[in-house]
Design brief:
The complex is a heterotrimer of chains A (298), B (257) and C (651). With 298 residues, chain A is an alpha+beta fold. Chain A is built from six helices and ten strands, in the order ααααββββββββββαα. In chain A, helix 2 runs antiparallel to helix 3, helix 3 packs antiparallel against helix 4 and helix 5 runs antiparallel to helix 6. The chains are: A alpha+beta (298), B alpha+beta (257), C mainly alpha (651). Chains in contact: A-B, A-C, B-C. Chains A and C meet through helix 1, helix 2, helix 3, helix 4 and strand 7 of A and helix 6, helix 12, helix 13, helix 14 and helix 15 of C. Bound molecules: copper (II) ion (CU) (3 copies). The site of one copper (II) ion (CU) has 8 residues of chain A, from loops.
């Protein structure tokens, strides 16, 4: 069928509303099929891809990131697929042959100046989607704001170009971040010079470290293993080097680590919330800067 | 408005020449800009300081090469911003031998062999003050976690930290992403309120008094590591501007080969 | 056309030997010399007085570069007319004709020329130069990142390149549509003889030109190692290059964009042709006006912020220094008060141009014209209420996260309407697949991806993963490069025949298109991948786990640059010896296609009369936007008045 014939068919269809052809042979029907296919592709990508791309998530707040990405992608897929389906179809069906090299325009299209109900429907659907997004975001965000009693306190200090982590009550200040498993943690984040970004990517939490300000963020690490803290706010010359390893360990390992860093056994046991007797401090001298404890390797 | 004959002629002309000329021109521009910026890559004006071999030694039952690395920090280098405050860390071209100031040139690029014991000696001539973070007054990552400090009056002591209010600079080395990211070394380079003010002319510096800091560490795997000073010895906010924010003064590279 | 029927054109008016006064001696070279001389004087004086004092070098840089900007503008002629006005020697008609470029040939492109078409062309070239510089810097960044620890760039050099790449691209994208097209095309489109304030128009252009050297001077003043967001206190700590950066912004945002914005708004408000009611205005005018209005809201904030930044640095005030009682958060708030609206300043005119393109190349009216206008106004109003979504993770006002999440997500409703308008216009149209249309389709593809990735960032929990991460970088390149700049490129292809009198070589153009379209996806999907893996933005060295993704992005970027270079080649060869363009190559209906090419001075030989909007495709009614052919004087028969004679005017 030449384009002119196709075009006439479309024209007829518009003018002769009475005996419209079956749905799936009309442009709307064909676009619907393409839309279904595109939506399916989008949903499949949205559901399966983030899991493979994200680093191994180590906490509930980290899983929130994953869930949000999946949920939003699935919601957005039909909208994106609709635009793509229509654009795709328009190129197949409504583009006269050789129109790209012609100096003469194709015949005028139908003079549609708008469609009130369609516009209202479009705005209505997007409003609905926005509300869903907002409710999701508010729910997740408020669940992350809950403070837990007995949370482990960690004072995080950013400076050009190093993070230091202080464990109050133990006298330990380290440049690596060790966290006990399944214990809520509160990070009190500040900076000494310029703004840095304290970002635990596997735990899905981030906040800036601002000089003279203290910002609290919370999470509960659930999965043992190592991670890397990377400064996420450009902070000058050696910003790229401002990162360090950290790891989530068992409470007993955590207590032992505190002791190896110079804490007394009782303070370490208290901070790690384990019985003092369970700690088996190694003979490591506190003055030795042992090779960095990287915890479980990533 | 072009006349018809000219336009006929225009249409016959192939655009190929213009296209190729444009592509080559822009490409040449990009390459030129690349060469310009790449030439700013920090290479020491006085060349790389190569650690001197001291033979082999045994550490924890392992035999490894032993090398020595000597350098100085001195104040008021040319090129520091506003020429105020304290100046760059620098090392002599000849890392041993003559101690006379005029023989010195700035170099902030070191070279040491991989997996070796490196014994570093730093002559610290500069004044100083309190640190932003007392954590850097401690010695991190050296053998035994200590450094030996000889004060200007000649007394020597082995320490694992120094008074955080009297630090001139620190020598802080880190593994960079990609090479041995766990590697970390930080040694405070002390100073003292009593240290005569060495800032000024070369002749002052000739007679200058220094703190001498000696420490050893085991170098990591091959690669380029970054070192910098973590003491607030620059200008502006937190005294980390100026010389602290430019390569060649309080920062440099260590090539581990 | 033959000489016999040639109308008497304004530009052929003979002028006396003294017409123009001082303007006769002024051009870009004189501006350059005057700028350098005054800068040298400023340097000598400020250096003698201030060097060695605290913050002396900041003062010296500030004074010197301010002198440069003033000197250049004295030399080019920015202050001539105001000065003559003040001393009571106002310009004569002859002076004004000289100022509009009469009798100067191609030399007028190097002068302070008030003809809006000259200004538009100057902007067009300036934008291409800026993109060339910004693109070259992007190549530096991507080359550095091809390996995990490259010794191509030092960290300081890298940080500065990141900053200047960002800023130069922001400047270029702000002016890429509002410069060339809102100046050259828009007045003709609405039937005006020029912009409302022709001298301010020339000023807006030359002020941008004078703002560029301070930006490039940062490379020799120690570099701005902060990123274009120049967050304090890092920017207060930065080398004196930061002062040069601030002078550039004050000049560009504080003067040029503001002046250009006022000009656009007044022109469209007051100078429309007879009969051009609000609903008959081409949609591009709406987009331009809303964008200009938004710019008038946003840019003064940037001016204020940068002025305070200079005083913080050069005099020791401490507005933004936490340690001295100031607040880095204040900077972030003021900055994003500018920064978010600025995104829509960039986007709106481009999308409006795409609506013109969609209509012309689908041979259909713009779909839901009033909804499109409402969407522009809606975006414009919401855009000023969303700035703090850039601050979700800063620790500032956590209680405001929810309201800002709301406003940010609300903006996707009017943005969705823009999609509706575009695809509604294409719907059942007859697609004329010429080059501008290619870029419309590419825009649809890219901007959907930019929009969808944007909703992750608008959600606080997900933003805690993606903020400050390469994902964000990829996202805003999808919106600003893949969206706005692709739209602007479509506009270039669309209006090129009118602006240059030549047809753009579409064979080369389509080659460029495919390089751009495909390489763009490779480049930024690579960066999405980096972001998902957890790579921070703006780092010169990275963990090798990101290596593959970075290499993908870099290879894509090389081909993307090649694509833009081919497009540039198409523009250059077509401009030099392309096919001569007829007055209305697209058979479009808006007024700019009804004037002859090249467009005469003051555009219309006969005042146009408008009886409908320019989208009457398929409606079977006479074209309602025309210059009436019944001319008062016989010799004034306009060459481009009707379809039949329009081709003759150019061949
Ligand atoms: Cu940082
Ligand atoms: Cu120092
Ligand atoms: Cu924004």
């Amino acid at each position: 069928m030449s384009f002119e014939q196709q075009f006439d068919a479309i024209e007829n269809e518009i003018t002769e509303e009475g005996d419209a052809p079956p749905f799936f042979s009309r442009p709307g029907g064909k676009i619907f099929i393409i839309w279904l296919v595109f939506t399916a592709i989008g949903v499949v990508i949205g559901v399966f891809a983030p899991h493979h791309l994200l680093p191994g998530l180590q906490s509930g707040t980290g899983s929130d990131v994953w869930a949000t990405i999946v949920f939003f992608t699935v919601l957005a897929a039909p909208v994106a697929a609709f635009v793509y389906a229509l654009a795709f179809y328009s190129l197949l069906a409504w583009r006269p042959k050789k129109s790209g090299s012609s100096d003469e325009p194709p015949p005028d299209g139908p003079p549609q100046r708008g469609n009130g109900p369609l516009t209202i429907l479009w705005v209505g659907i997007s409003t609905l989607l926005v509300i869903v997004l907002l409710v999701w975001g508010m729910t997740v965000w408020s669940s992350q704001q809950v403070a837990h009693d007995g949370a482990l306190q960690v004072n995080v200090t950013g400076q050009q170009w190093l993070w230091t982590y202080e464990y109050p009550g133990t006298g330990v200040t380290s440049r690596t971040l060790e966290l006990p498993q399944d214990r809520p943690v509160e990070f009190n984040v500040t900076a000494l010079d310029v703004i840095h970004g304290f970002w635990l990517d596997t735990m899905g939490i981030q906040t800036d470290a601002n000089p003279n300000e203290n910002t609290v963020i919370r999470t509960t690490p659930t999965t043992l293993g190592g991670f890397v803290v990377r400064c996420s706010q450009l902070c000058g010359l050696n910003h790229a080097f401002m990162n360090n390893k950290g790891s989530v360990v068992t409470p007993t390992q955590f207590g032992n680590w505190l002791v190896s860093q110079g804490a007394t056994t009782s303070a370490a046991a208290k901070s790690a919330d384990v019985p003092e007797s369970s700690l088996t401090p190694s003979s490591t001298s506190t003055t030795t800067a042992a090779p960095m404890n990287t915890g479980a390797s990533q | 408005m072009a006349d018809p004959e000219k336009s006929q002629e225009d249409e016959r002309k192939s655009p190929a020449f213009g296209v190729v000329a444009t592509l080559l021109g822009v490409f040449a521009f990009i390459v030129a800009v690349g060469v310009f910026f790449s030439s700013q890559y920090y290479t020491s004006p006085s060349g790389t300081v190569v650690a001197q071999s001291l033979g082999t030694t045994e550490v924890n039952g392992q035999s490894m090469p032993h090398v020595a690395l000597n350098f100085q920090t001195y104040p008021n280098s040319t090129g520091s911003r506003n020429a105020q405050g304290t100046g760059p860390g620098s090392v002599p071209v000849h890392s041993s031998g003559s101690d006379s100031w005029p023989a010195y040139g700035m170099s902030n690029v070191f070279q040491v062999p991989a997996h070796s014991l490196v014994t570093v000696t730093v002559h610290q001539y500069d004044s100083g003050g309190p640190l932003n973070n007392p954590w850097f007054s401690k010695v991190h990552g050296t053998q035994d976690g200590t450094a030996t400090v000889t004060t200007p009056d000649g007394t020597s002591s082995t320490v694992s930290s120094w008074d955080q209010n009297n630090i001139g600079h620190t020598f802080t080395v880190r593994g960079v992403p990609g090479y041995d990211p766990n590697f970390f070394l930080s040694v405070p380079l002390p100073t003292n309120a009593d240290l005569p003010n060495n800032e000024g002319s070369a002749s002052n510096q000739d007679n200058g008094q220094s703190y001498t800091v000696t420490f050893s560490f085991i170098s990591g795997g091959k690669g380029t590591y970054a070192w910098n000073c973590e003491a607030p010895c620059g200008q502006m906010v937190a005294a980390f501007g100026g010389v602290m924010s430019a390569y060649g003064f309080m920062s440099g590279f260590i090539h581990v080969v | 056309m033959s000489i016999a029927t040639a109308p008497l054109l304004l530009e052929d008016t003979p002028l006396g030997p003294k017409a123009g006064g001082l303007y006769r001696r002024q051009n870009a070279l004189v501006g350059l010399i005057a700028g350098v001389v005054l800068a040298a004087i400023g340097w000598v004086i400020s250096h003698a007085l201030l060097q060695g004092s605290n913050w002396g070098s900041d003062m010296v840089v500030t004074v010197t570069l301010t002198c440069w900007v003033i000197g250049f503008n004295i030399g080019i002629g920015t202050f001539n007319a105001p000065f003559r006005w003040v001393v009571g020697k106002d310009s004569t008609r002859e002076d004004e004709l000289y100022g509009a470029g009469v009798g100067q040939g191609a030399a007028r492109y190097w002068k302070y020329c008030t003809d809006h078409k000259v200004v538009g062309t100057q902007y067009f070239v300036l934008v291409m130069v800026l993109f060339a510089i910004g693109g070259t810097l992007a190549m530096m960044i991507r080359t550095q990142l091809i390996t995990a620890h490259s010794s191509f760039l030092s960290p300081g050099t890298y940080n500065n390149i990141v900053t200047i790449h960002g800023m130069i691209m922001i400047i270029a994208t702000i002016i890429m549509v509002s410069g060339p097209f809102a100046n050259f095309i828009l007045p003709i489109m609405i039937g005006a003889k020029d912009m409302a304030f022709p001298r301010l128009n020339a000023m807006s252009l030359w002020v941008v030109v004078s703002a560029v050297p301070p930006l490039l001077a940062t490379f020799v003043l120690g570099g701005v190692d902060t990123g274009w967001t120049t967050y304090a206190p890092l920017s207060v700590q930065a080398p004196p290059a930061m002062d040069a950066f601030a002078i550039c912004i004050i000049t560009f945002a504080g003067v040029s964009v503001t002046v250009a914005g006022i000009n656009t708004i007044v022109t469209v408000s007051t100078m429309r042709a007879k009969g051009m009611t609000m609903s008959r205005v081409p949609i591009f005018a709406w987009g331009s006006v809303v964008s200009a209005a938004l710019g008038l809201y946003a840019m003064p904030a940037f001016l204020t912020a940068m002025s305070m930044m200079i005083t913080d640095r050069a005099t020791g005030t401490s507005f933004f220094v936490n340690q001295l009682g100031g607040a880095g958060w204040l900077w972030e708030n003021v900055f994003w008060t500018m920064g978010h609206p600025e995104v829509y300043v960039i986007l709106l005119p481009g999308t409006a141009a795409l609506m013109e393109i969609a209509s012309t190349f689908s041979r259909k009216p713009v779909f839901a014209y009033k909804a499109a206008v409402a969407a522009f106004v809606g975006i414009g109003s919401l855009a000023i209420m969303v700035w703090a979504h850039h601050m979700f993770t800063t620790g500032w006002a956590p209680n405001l996260a929810t309201p800002f999440m709301l406003t940010t997500e609300l903006i996707s409703i009017p943005t969705g309407v823009i999609f509706l308008v575009l695809i509604g216009t294409i719907w059942k149209g007859s697609i004329w697949a010429r080059l501008p249309m290619y870029f419309l389709y590419l825009f649809l593809w890219n901007f959907i991806i930019g929009g969808v990735t944007g909703i992750y960032l608008s959600d606080v929990p997900a933003d805690q993963f993606f903020h400050g991460n390469m994902f964000t970088t990829a996202h805003f390149h999808y919106t600003l490069l893949g969206g706005a700049m692709i739209a602007a490129t479509g506009a270039v292809c669309y209006w090129f025949p009118k602006m240059t009198g030549r047809m753009l070589n579409e064979r080369i153009g389509k080659t460029a298109f495919w390089f751009i379209a495909i390489a763009f996806q490779v480049t930024y999907f690579g960066q999405f991948w980096e972001g998902f893996q957890g790579m921070p933005r703006r780092i010169a060295f990275y963990d090798p786990i990101f290596l593959r993704a970075n290499q993908m992005s870099t290879i894509g970027a090389y081909f993307l640059m090649l694509g833009w270079m081919i497009l540039l080649a198409a523009i250059i060869v077509s401009w030099r010896n392309g096919k001569i363009a007829p007055a209305n190559p697209w058979h479009a209906k808006s007024l700019e296609w009804k004037v002859q090419t090249p467009v005469p001075l003051e555009n219309f030989l006969v005042d146009p009369v408008v009886t409908s909007d320019p989208y009457t495709y398929g409606e079977g009614v006479p074209d309602g936007q025309n210059q009436p052919s019944a001319a008062p004087e016989p010799e004034l028969v306009p060459a481009g008045a009707s379809e039949s004679t329009s081709g003759g005017g150019a061949s």
